[in-house]
Amino acid sequence: MDAYPVVLRDRASGGEVHGYSAVNVVGCIDATRLEGSRYRLRFGKPCFTGAVAIDEAKAGDRALFRTLHGPGFMVVSAGIADGLRRESWSGLLLQPTAEYAGA
Fold it and tell me: What's the pTM value of the predicted model, to 2 decimals?
């Protein structure tokens, strides 16, 4: 993961808030399992249209990762998801990959 310091600016008031970071998850893991996933092939590559199965052996004990062939979301462990839910973050969608309904 890379983290970058950011300054939040209120366009209306011009006020600034410091002490926040933007985070990027660098790299991907080929941990999607086509068996058990809903997808169609597009230009020879899977395009997920629904549930995305994760190969737990390939994911290993990683708590956070992006999928190589997935729909562009980040996969987080149940523990991280529970912690994020407790914090009530706005603008954050947490759902099991098996319940993904497509973009």
Answer: 0.70
